[in-house]
Specification:
The protein has about 260 residues and is an alpha/beta fold. It has two domains: about 120 residues, 3-Layer(aba) Sandwich (Rossmann fold); about 80 residues, no CATH class. Helices cover about 35% and strands about 25% of the residues. The chain is built from ten helices and ten strands. A hairpin with a 2-residue loop joins strand 9 and strand 10. The C terminus is likely disordered.
């Protein structure tokens, strides 16, 4: 489903501040795979996401999504195939538009073409059913503007927006980091349910190692622009945070900065 081959990206090349963010990264996700991504600050996690999403082009390498080479595809065209959520609950939505209008905007990417304010009753009924899954009463508040929702409510709606059109790939960029623990747990539970039910191929960045090992099917660890570890199956099942830290130490010959890695 997603193939990243020899992905290389250097920022400020040729200067004293040169930073090699990706150093020949290879990654292959099969349909329905759910990869959690961990690593210290500056390890290349966000650079990997931004290169897949099309925020910038790679210096070298290629990105294949569902058999289509998207390496040089414009970001807005990739957005039709890729759903994305950010850490900031204020990003990814139109704050002055209602819940219903935001869902329509997301839904129209694959179902209706250009956004229309003439929301059909059939679509409205669909949105109501989707929002009811959140168990937050938002199905009765569809005319409420997004900016009036709490962070947890907003991220929950954004999750629905990111998955309503059944994207080829879902990118979750620390999408619960700004939430309180109760809201974060609820959004993670919803994420796991939706991704599993709809078999959406997913990459999720998290600084919470417990969540990284608990959710999804695979866990990868980046360090200095390289994938130094990939875990799945029996090797991943039952692995503790300390166990993963010990593996990391052996792989990279340095210890975690617990302030930056652990919640």
């Amino acid at each position: 489903m997603l193939k990243v081959k020899n992905a290389c990206k250097t920022f400020l090349a040729g200067t004293v501040n040169e930073h090699k963010a990706l150093c020949g990264v290879d990654l292959h996700l099969k349909p329905g795979d759910f990869y959690t991504v961990i690593g210290t600050n500056g390890s290349g996690k966000s650079t990997l996401f931004n290169s897949v999403a099309g925020n910038f082009l790679l210096d070298d390498g290629e990105i294949i999504l569902d058999g289509v080479d998207i390496t040089y595809m414009k970001e807005h065209k990739r957005a039709k195939r890729i759903g994305r959520m950010f850490q900031d609950p204020m990003k990814g939505t139109a704050p002055d538009m209602t819940i219903e209008e935001n869902l329509t905007l997301a839904y129209s990417r694959s179902h209706k073409g250009l956004f229309s304010r003439a929301i059909r009753k059939k679509d409205s009924d669909t949105f109501r059913e989707i929002l009811a899954q959140l168990d937050m009463g938002l199905e009765n508040r569809m005319k409420t503007k997004m900016k009036l929702l709490s962070g947890g409510q907003r991220q929950s709606v954004t999750l629905m927006m990111s998955t309503i059109a059944k994207p080829k790939l879902l990118l979750l960029d620390e999408h619960t980091a700004a939430l309180d623990p109760v809201s974060a747990e609820k959004v993670l539970k919803l994420t796991n349910e939706i991704v599993g039910r709809d078999k959406i191929t997913t990459l999720m960045i998290t600084h919470n190692i417990t969540s990284a090992l608990k959710l999804g099917t695979h866990t990868i660890m980046l360090d200095r622009g390289n994938i130094i570890l990939e875990l799945s199956g029996a090797e991943r099942d039952g692995l503790t945070v300390q166990g993963l830290m010990d593996i990391y130490y052996k792989k990279s010959a340095k210890v975690f900065d617990t302030d930056s890695m652990l919640l």
